[in-house]
Design a protein that fits this description.
Chain B: InterPro entries: AAA+_ATPase (IPR003593), AAA_lid_NorR (IPR058031), CheY-like_superfamily (IPR011006), Homeodomain-like_sf (IPR009057), HTH_Fis (IPR002197), P-loop_NTPase (IPR027417), Sig_transdc_resp-reg_receiver (IPR001789), Sigma_54_int (IPR002078). Chain B: Pfam families: AAA_lid_14 (PF25601), HTH_8 (PF02954), Response_reg (PF00072), Sigma54_activat (PF00158). Chain B: This is Sigma-54 dependent transcriptional regulator. The complex is a heterodimer of chains A (about 150) and B (about 475). Chain A has helices at about 10-20, 30-40, 45-65, 80-95, 100-115, 115-145. Chain A is mainly alpha-helical and about 150 residues long. Chain B is built from 19 helices and 14 strands. In chain B, the strands form four sheets. Chain B has a five-stranded parallel sheet with strand order 2-1-3-4-5, sandwiched between helices. Chain B has a five-stranded parallel sheet with strand order 7-8-11-6-12. Classes of the chains: A mainly alpha (about 150), B alpha/beta (about 475). The interface of A and B includes residues 35, 83, 87, 88 and 109 of A.
C-alpha cells in the first residue's frame, strides 16, 4: 500500500480498528516492573524513572518528526528514523512491562520496514498517546511498589 | 573486587538499568554511550568482558566488536540486540562474540551471561579469519579419521567449545552428531558439569514438556513426585537436544522462552527456576526446510542456528572408512575373543567404494557382523554380509545409495521373524528420509521402540 492511497474513509476506519493500538492508557505488567526495581535496588528507582521519562519523550519527539506528512507535503516519512525509534521503544517498553505499547512498537517497526505509510498513519497516533501517558503510569506504579 | 566490565549502550535509561542491575550484583561497570567512547574505555581499562549494543549512533556495533577482538582476542564480548536484528546477533556469534542478549533484556539473564563470561578461563579464541590454533593438537575425543573434512570438524569443535554459543549440528544419521556434541562439552569450561542428551523425537509429545522442564508432584495424573527435567539436570553443563526439528510445535515457544530467559518453569509449578545451561542441538534434516514447511519456528531456528557444524557423510571422508573399520575390528575382536589382525586389500578397496547410507553406524554393524560370524587373521570379501557386497554392483547407478527397496514377500522366505521385523523397520525409516519418529507413526509404535530395537541391532551386529 502506498502513501497516496486515498480509499474509502469508512473502510479506513474499519482497518484502523483492526490495526491501531488502544487509545486508552497503556497497560503495565506490574510484576515485571517490581522485578526490575528489585534488581536495580530502591535507591536507583527515581533516577531510572527520570531517564525513562526523558527517553520516552525523545522517542516521541523524533517519531513525530519522522512520521509521514499528508500527501504532497514533503518531506516524506523518514523510514530509517521510524525503524530506529520503534527499536528503542520496543526495548524501553519491554524493560518496564508496558506490553501493549511494546506490541504497538513492534507493529510500527514492521510497518516501517515495509514502508507502509498508511499503516503507520493508523498505528502512530495511538502509540504517541500511550507514550505520553506512560511516564505518569510508571511513577504511580513506582509509588505503590515495595521496592 | 570483580574485574571491571565495559557497557556500551546508547539509550540512557537502558544504560542506567543494565549498569544498576550489574552493580547491584557486585560488578564494577564502566559505561559508554557511543562506539568512540566505548573504544577509548576499552583501550584504557582493558575489561575482560564487554556488553555491546549492536546499534550505536556513530558506528556499527559489529565492526566495534571486530576491532576489540583484533586488539585483545581474549575479551569476552556479549552483544545486545533486538529481535528485529537477530541476524546480526548470529553474525556476531560467528565473528567471535561470547553470547548475545535480546532486548528487552531480562535482569537475571544479563547477570548470568556476564558471570558465565567471567568464569571462562583465559584461553583466547582465534582471531576471526585466523587459522585454527590447534593444528597439530591431538584430535577431539570420540572421533576417528584424519580426512580433511574431519580435520575441519575437529578445528570447529575446538574453536566453539570455550564459548557459550549455541551449536547446531546437522548431518545424516550415523555421522556422529552426538559424539560431536559430547566433544564440544568435554572441551568447554563446563566439562566438569553434566552433559544431558535428550532425543526430542523419541519422547511422546505429551511427555516432552515434562522431560525437558520437569514437573511438580500432582501436576498431572501419574506425577507422584517432583521431577527436575533435562534442563535442570543440565544446570552448569550442556543440554544436547537431538532431533530438535521433531520437537512438537506447541513446545517450541517454551524452548524459545527458556533460551531467552535461562529460566524453566516445571509443569505445575508457579515460580520459574534459573538455570545455567549451554545448548547444543542436532538434526538429520534440513532445518531451513523445516522452517519453510512451518514445522519449526523461524525465531527458534535463529536462536539455535548460531554456530552450525555439518557432519560429513562417511562416503565423503576418503580413507577414514578404512581407519574406522580397522579400529573397530581391533576393538570387536578383543571383545569377542577372535584373532583378526587387519583388512584384506580388496576389502579396503570395497569399503572405500561403498556409499554407506547408514554412515559410521552402518560400518560398525558390518564389522561387528564380520567378527561375530568369522575368525581371522584377515577380513576377506567373502566374510562381508551379502547385501553389502551386492550394493557394489557396477550396474547400480552412481551417487549416494538409495534406501533398499521394500522387500517383496518372496524375498522374505527363509528369514526369521526377527530379521523380517528389522527389514520392515529399516525400510520404513528409509522411506521417511531417516526420520525415526515419522516411521514410528507409520508403523503405529512409539519412536522409543524403534530406537531401542536399532540400539539392540547395533550392539548385536546383526544384518538382515
Amino acid at each position: 500500500m502506498s502513501d497516496d492511497d486515498g480509499g474509502n474513509r469508512a473502510a479506513e476506519r474499519r482497518r484502523s480498528n483492526a490495526f491501531s493500538i488502544s487509545a486508552a492508557a497503556p497497560s503495565l505488567r506490574v510484576a515485571r516492573l517490581d522485578q526490575l526495581f528489585a534488581a536495580i535496588g530502591a535507591e536507583a528507582v527515581p533516577e531510572l524513572l527520570a531517564r525513562l521519562t526523558e527517553d520516552l519523550a525523545e522517542v516521541d519527539r523524533r517519531l513525530a518528526a519522522a512520521l509521514p506528512r499528508p500527501p504532497a507535503r514533503p518531506p516524506g516519512p523518514d523510514w530509517a528514523e521510524i525503524r530506529a525509534q520503534a527499536h528503542v521503544l520496543i526495548a524501553l517498553t519491554g524493560t518496564v512491562g508496558a506490553d501493549g505499547l511494546r506490541r504497538g512498537a513492534e507493529r510500527l517497526h514492521a510497518a516501517a520496514c515495509a514502508r507502509d505509510g498508511a499503516a503507520i498513519r493508523r498505528i502512530a497516533p495511538g502509540i504517541r498517546r500511550q507514550l505520553a501517558a506512560l511516564p505518569g503510569l510508571l511513577r504511580a506504579a513506582a509509588a505503590g511498589c515495595p521496592a | 573486587m570483580t574485574p571491571p566490565l565495559l557497557l556500551i549502550e546508547d539509550t540512557p535509561a537502558l544504560r542506567f538499568a543494565y549498569r544498576a542491575v550489574l552493580e547491584a550484583a557486585g560488578h564494577t561497570i564502566t559505561a559508554a554511550a557511543t562506539a568512540a567512547a566505548g573504544l577509548r574505555a576499552f583501550h584504557a581499562e582493558e575489561p575482560r568482558v564487554v556488553l555491546l549494543d549492536l546499534m550505536l549512533p556513530d558506528r556499527d556495533g559489529l565492526s566495534v566488536m571486530r576491532e576489540m577482538l583484533a586488539a585483545r582476542p581474549g575479551t569476552r564480548i556479549i552483544v545486545i540486540t533486538s529481535n528485529a536484528s537477530i541476524n546480526q546477533a548470529v553474525e556476531a556469534m560467528r565473528a567471535g562474540a561470547h553470547d548475545f542478549l535480546v532486548k528487552p533484556v531480562d535482569e537475571q539473564r544479563i547477570i548470568h551471561s556476564v558471570e558465565n563470561a567471567l568464569r571462562v578461563q583465559e584461553t583466547p579464541p582465534p582471531a576471526p579469519g585466523a587459522r585454527p590454533r590447534h593444528n597439530g593438537a591431538p584430535p577431539t575425543q570420540g572421533f576417528l579419521g584424519s580426512s580433511a573434512a574431519m580435520t575441519d570438524i575437529h578445528a570447529k569443535i575446538r574453536s566453539v567449545a570455550p564459548s557459550m554459543a549455541t551449536v547446531f549440528i546437522t548431518g545424516e544419521s550415523g555421522t556422529g552428531k552426538e559424539i560431536c556434541a559430547q566433544s564440544i562439552h568435554d572441551l568447554s569450561p563446563r566439562a566438569r558439569g553434566p552433559f544431558i542428551a535428550l532425543n526430542c523425537g523419541a519422547i511422546p509429545t505429551d511427555l516432552l514438556e515434562s522431560e525437558v522442564f520437569g514437573h511438580v508432584r500432582g501436576a498431572f495424573t501419574g506425577a507422584v513426585g517432583d521431577k527436575p527435567g533435562a534442563a535442570v539436570a543440565a544446570d552448569g553443563g550442556t543440554l544436547f537436544l537431538d532431533e530438535v526439528c521433531e520437537m512438537d510445535l506447541a513446545l517450541q515457544p517454551k524452548l524459545l522462552r527458556f533460551l531467552q530467559t535461562s529460566t524453566v518453569t516445571p509443569v505445575g509449578a508457579t515460580k520459574p527456576r534459573k538455570v545455567d545451561v549451554r545448548i547444543v542441538c542436532a538434526t538429520n534434516r534440513d532445518p531451513l526446510e523445516a522452517v519453510r514447511r512451518g514445522t519449526f519456528r523461524e525465531d527458534l531456528f535463529y536462536r539455535l542456528f548460531v554456530v552450525p557444524i555439518h557432519m560429513p557423510p562417511l562416503r565423503e571422508r576418503g580413507d577414514d572408512v578404512v581407519e574406522i573399520a580397522e579400529a573397530a575390528l581391533t576393538r570387536f575382536a578383543a571383545e569377542e575373543g577372535r584373532g583378526f589382525a587387519g583388512l584384506d586389500g580388496d576389502v579396503k578397496a570395497l569399503l572405500r567404494s561403498l556409499p554407506w547410507p547408514g554412515n559410521v553406524r552402518q560400518l560398525l554393524n558390518v564389522i561387528r557382523n564380520v567378527v561375530v560370524l568369522n575368525d581371522g587373521p584377515l577380513v576377506t570379501p567373502a566374510m562381508l554380509p551379502d547385501r553389502l557386497v551386492e550394493s557394489t554392483d557396477p550396474a547400480a547407478p552412481d551417487g549416494p545409495a538409495l534406501p533398499p527397496a521394500a522387500p517383496g514377500i518372496e524375498t522374505l522366505a527363509g528369514r526369521t521373524l526377527a530379521e523380517i521385523e528389522q527389514l520392515v523397520i529399516e525400510a520404513a525409516i528409509a522411506r521417511h528420509g531417516g526420520s525415526v519418529p515419522r516411521a514410528a507413526r507409520e508403523l503405529d509404535v512409539a519412536p522409543s521402540t524403534l530406537y531401542r530395537k536399532r540400539d539392540g541391532w547395533a550392539r548385536g551386529g546383526q544384518q538382515p
